[in-house]
Structures are given as structure tokens and as C-alpha cells.
Design brief:
Elements lengths: L16 E10 L2 E4 L6 E3 L9 E7 L12 E9 L10 E25 L8 E2 L2 H8 L10 E5 L6 E5 L11 E10 L3 E2 L8 H5 L12 E2 L14 E5 L4 E3 H5 L12 E3 L7 E4 L13 E6 L5 E14 L1 H6 L5 H10 L2 E4 L6 E3 L3 E3 L3 E4 L9 E4 L5 E3 L4 E4 L3 E9 L5 E9 L37 E4 L10 E4 L1 E4 L13 E4 L8 E5 L5 E5 L5 H8 L6 E11 L5 E12 L5
Parallel strand pairs: 1-18, 14-15, 20-27
Antiparallel strand pairs: 1-2, 2-3, 4-5, 5-17, 6-10, 6-11, 6-12, 6-16, 6-18, 7-9, 8-9, 13-17, 15-16, 19-22, 21-25, 23-26, 24-25, 26-27, 28-29, 29-35, 30-33, 31-34, 32-33, 34-35
């Protein structure tokens, strides 16, 4: 890059200003959030995106070459949250303005002595000057004059050179005054932009009329003589490189793609930006590489545009070759049928099948999640279970390539709209059915009738507890008909340990005989008070008349579990 080698004089009293601005634009709205504007122009439109331009920058009021790089960090964040906001494609465009007020210098006609470093020899008092220029003095036969150097601010008595120094080898003229000319735009075609520089904090302004920074080869602006940008080169490729059919072929990349094919200056993030996601930095800093000769003012202005894939497909806005690449290669997921709107407590529903575009996603690699599994849970196969009344809950499916889709579901009470094939139940208070300990025979009561010692070498206390239990059917089935009733654990882990039979009092009951290991008891005890341990298990009840129900029983354990 050409930086020039002509030495510039710097006048200390002149103010050089660097200002960095940003404007965020999205589909149907404009959002200006930087330079302390906080101005929103929504025009009654709904906000479709939560993509935000993020800038960390420093405003400089006396910018010098010696300052080195000045912070100017640019990136974009998608603050949206599903399901209200989705993926967006973003692009940025940088614009510049620079003006310089040229200096006119008033110099002394005489030259004055300088030292070997080129600095003026200045005596502090007139007495020193008289002595130095008197016969026998160090500057005998020289004249002196009281002056102020407007460049350095030095004031005192300057020693004139003599007639034998006509070319100034021993001295130079003193600039004792200067005037600053009217600012002139550095970039060709800049005069129409000057109005914006008078108060760039005022909104609206002419910021959008600044000169676009083009990435096309050979199209550098005149500002490059003075200003150098430090880009995050490791996260940047050209549009030509990105679209190369034998290379990336427009596939999604975590890089900024600069359009080097035209002068529009757009820079695209190379993939859809998901809710909560952020881009890499595009720019890191800017540096003054040559000091302008006068008062100057420089502005970088950043525009950001965010659109959805559907908008790109519609052609409004038209993102050209970059937009076509996004359309062609953006991964998409869709359901092959309508999604369920409701599920009952205790009920399970299989989510609709998932179609991926491109067709390169293995269904086994899909990741399912629930926005609130305490209300509606979903397993790795997309099977949704109603846990408790509430919602709507968002069921999300995501592919490894970043594609997502979702549906919402509401959990309704188990008896809402029950058909005749549902068993009539006695309400359990939403806490599940719990065995009751027999106060007269705690070791053999309804809820506890088998005693077991821990067989645990790590248990120095020889703890013991009672397991197995019974829940009386008369406390569960409302119509009292227990004939042929069966009980099956929903979780296969407990199948075979839950049956229908009589307890030791001869009462028809749901019997459980699962023997937990020590670690399970410890885990369950974390959520149970005192020495009473409850663990909920879902059980499906069925009668020969076709009536069924899924209930929750609380397997109950008790013991002298000192290790807890």
C-alpha cells in the first residue's frame, strides 16, 4: 500500500477526529443502535429479526500516527429466541468519509539557528540572548528575536543565521502563525457528504451517502493514503473463492465472504446465523499511517442487513450470486405431516417424520429437545410424553448441519375429553399414588413388608431398609371393578417388578418389588425428606373390558440409612 514519504508538519493545536458509526437494517425495519443514537425507525412494521450489529470502537479526538491501531471491532449477533425468531442471513457494508482542512503557514523571512537534531536554538531570556550575541559570545555578531514557534509552542529568543547561510543549511524559518482552510473531502465526489460531518451524532444525517468501500481489486479509496484497516483475515474469503465449483461451491462456512465482483461493497456471513449465534469479528482496528497536513476528520459507517431464507427465495431483497448460494446450499428441515397440537398427561405421541434438504441427514443423527421437559418431554426418537398440564411447549429438532424446525404442543389433563375406554380413577392429587404405612405393624405394613440388609462393603454401619410395597386398588379404581386388572411399568426397567395381587392383609393391590441398589437409594434420597424415600414410576393399568389408564405410583422405601 502506498503510504507516501513526504514529511508532514504537525500543528499541535489542530484537532484530528476519528468517528466510527453503525446502522442496523433488517428486512422491514431499521434499527440504529450506535454512536449513542438509540433511534428506532419501525414505521409500524413488526420486528422480524433480532440480529444486531455489534461494534466495539474508540472515538479519538487527537489522532496521531504514533497512536498505533485504534479499536474498531465489527461482528453480528442473533439475539433471537425460538420459536418467535429463527435463522437469519446477514451482510454488512462499510462506508467512509474523510475531509482535511489544509494549513496556510505564516513564516519569518529570516532563518534561525537549529541544533543537530533540527530543533530551534531558543534562549529563555533576553539577557542570555544579549550575552550570546555580544563580541566574544557563542553567537557573536548574530541577531536575535523574540518569537513563538506555532508548531512546537516554544517561546523565547531565537538566533538568526548570518548572510553566509542563504540556503538554510544552518537554520530554518519559524512558523509563527497558521490558518486552517475550509475542509475538503478526500474521497472523489465527497462534497455532497460534508453535511453529515458537521454533526454525525445528529439523526438522521447523510451517513448513508458516504463512499462505499469496494472490495473489487484496484478500487481502493483515496483514504488508503492515510488510513489502514486491520481485518480479521483468518475469517475472510472472497466471493470468487467461495463460489468456486471445484472448491467450496458456496457451501456454508464460518467466514466472512467479501464480494470482490462489483463495487457494491457487501460482505456476507457464510452461513445462516442461528438464534443465540454470533459471527466472527470482521474488523479489528484502524491505523493512521500518514499524518494529514491540517485538521482532518474521518468516519467509518457500517450498515447491516438481515433477511430470512424465505425472503432470499422470493428475491426481495436480491442478494445476487451470494443469495443464490444460500438458497441452494442452506440446510432445511421440515415435517412430512401435521404436528400434534395437544398431548394428555401420561400420554405419548410420536412426532411427525422429518424431511431434510439436502437429503444428507441420517434420522438417527437428529437431536430432539423440549423447551420445558417438566411439562412435555421428548426422547431421542421424537416421542413426546405429557408430563404435567401446561404449555405451549416448543419441541425442537436439529440436524448436525445446523438446520432446525419445531412445533408447539400443549399438555392437557388426562381426563379431558376422555373416551369411554378410560378407567375411572380416584384423583391422586397430581402427586401420584403412594402406599400407606401400617402404624400397627411398620415392618409388615401395607407399604413395607420385606426387610433387607445392605450388602455393601463400603457401608460400615450395616444399614438396613424395607422395600416392596402395596397400593390398595380401592384407593385407585373408582368403580371398584378389579377383575382381570393388569399393571405394567411404562419404563421397561421396572417391568416384572410391578404386578396386581393381594397384600398380606388380603386386599387387592398394585404390588411393587423392585430392589434398588445403594447408589439408586442415595440418588433418590436427595429429593426425599428424612428417611422416607419416594420414587415415581408410571404404570399402565388395563382391564379385560378394554378400559385403560396410565397412573404414577410412588415406590416407597424406609430404613436406617445413616449414609444419607
Amino acid at each position: 500500500m502506498e503510504t507516501g514519504n513526504r514529511k508532514k508538519r504537525r500543528v499541535a493545536a489542530i484537532v484530528a477526529v476519528l468517528a466510527l458509526t453503525a446502522t442496523t437494517l433488517g428486512g422491514t425495519f431499521a434499527y440504529q443502535d450506535y454512536m449513542q443514537h438509540k433511534s428506532n425507525e419501525l414505521g409500524g412494521q413488526s420486528i422480524k429479526y433480532e440480529a444486531r450489529l455489534v461494534e466495539d470502537f474508540a472515538e479519538v479526538n487527537d489522532w496521531n500516527v504514533s497512536d498505533g491501531p485504534v479499536t474498531k471491532k465489527i461482528s453480528v449477533v442473533n439475539h433471537g429466541v425460538l420459536p418467535d425468531f429463527g435463522n437469519v442471513h446477514v451482510r454488512i457494508q462499510l462506508k467512509e468519509y474523510m475531509e482535511i482542512g489544509k494549513l496556510a503557514y505564516n513564516e519569518t523571512p529570516e532563518r534561525y539557528l537549529i541544533d543537530t537534531d533540527g530543533d530551534f536554538i531558543v534562549l529563555a531570556t533576553e539577557g542570555e540572548a544579549i550575552t550570546a550575541t555580544a563580541p566574544g559570545g557563542i553567537y557573536a555578531s548574530h541577531n536575535y528575536k523574540e518569537l513563538t514557534d506555532a508548531v512546537t509552542g516554544a517561546h523565547g529568543y531565537f538566533i538568526e543565521t548570518q548572510d553566509h547561510d542563504p540556503n538554510g543549511q544552518m537554520g530554518k524559518h519559524v512558523i509563527y502563525d497558521y490558518t486552517v482552510g475550509d475542509p475538503e473531502a478526500v474521497i472523489a465526489g465527497g462534497p455532497q457528504q460534508k453535511a453529515a460531518s458537521t454533526n454525525h451524532h445528529e439523526f438522521p444525517s447523510d451517513e448513508c451517502a458516504y463512499a462505499i468501500h469496494s472490495w473489487k481489486k484496484g478500487s481502493d479509496l483515496e483514504t488508503r493514503e492515510y488510513i489502514e484497516w486491520q481485518l480479521n483475515t483468518g475469517a475472510i474469503i472472497t466471493l470468487t473463492e467461495w463460489l468456486d465449483p471445484v472448491g467450496l461451491n458456496g457451501m456454508p462456512v464460518d467466514k466472512w465472504v467479501i464480494d470482490d465482483t462489483n463495487d457494491e461493497g457487501w460482505v456476507y456471513w457464510g452461513r445462516a446465523l442461528e438464534p443465540g449465534g454470533s459471527t466472527a469479528l470482521f474488523m479489528k482496528s484502524v491505523t493512521l499511517i500518514q499524518q494529514p497536513d491540517g485538521s482532518f476528520y474521518y468516519v467509518i459507517h457500517t450498515d447491516m442487513q438481515a433477511v430470512s431464507l424465505d425472503e432470499l427465495i422470493s428475491g426481495d431483497p436480491d442478494w445476487g450470486d451470494a443469495g443464490n448460494a444460500f438458497i441452494k446450499n442452506s440446510p432445511k428441515l421440515a415435517f412430512d405431516g401435521p404436528a400434534p397440537a395437544t398431548v394428555k398427561v401420561g400420554e405419548t405421541i410420536v412426532s411427525p417424520g422429518v424431511i431434510s434438504t439436502p437429503d444428507n441427514v441420517d434420522p438417527a443423527d437428529l437431536i430432539w429437545s423440549s423447551s420445558n421437559p417438566a411439562i412435555a418431554a421428548v426422547d431421542e426418537n421424537g416421542v413426546v410424553t405429557g408430563v404435567s398440564v401446561g404449555g405451549p411447549v416448543t419441541i425442537i429438532v436439529k440436524a448436525p448441519n445446523g438446520a432446525k424446525t419445531h412445533f408447539t404442543i400443549t399438555v392437557i389433563p388426562a381426563d379431558e375429553g376422555q373416551p369411554d375406554n378410560k378407567l375411572p380413577l380416584i384423583p391422586d392429587g397430581n402427586d401420584g399414588y403412594t402406599p400407606i404405612r401400617d402404624p400397627d405393624d411398620s415392618a409388615n405394613g401395607d407399604g413395607l413388608y420385606v426387610k433387607k440388609d445392605f450388602d455393601d462393603p463400603d457401608d460400615p454401619y450395616n444399614n438396613e431398609y424395607y422395600h416392596d410395597g402395596a397400593i390398595h386398588l380401592e384407593d385407585v379404581i373408582a368403580d371398584g371393578n378389579f377383575t382381570g386388572l393388569t399393571a405394567t411399568a411404562v419404563d421397561p426397567k421396572y417391568s416384572g417388578f410391578i404386578t396386581i395381587g393381594n397384600d398380606h392383609h388380603g386386599k387387592p393391590s398394585i404390588l411393587y418389588s423392585y430392589v434398588p441398589n445403594v447408589q439408586e437409594l442415595r440418588d433418590w434420597a436427595q429429593n426425599s425428606p428424612g428417611l422416607d424415600i419416594y420414587f415415581p414410576v408410571q404404570v399402565e393399568l388395563a382391564r379385560p373390558d378394554g378400559k385403560t389408564a396410565i397412573i404414577t405410583i410412588n415406590m416407597y422405601y424406609w430404613g436406617s440409612l445413616l449414609v444419607f
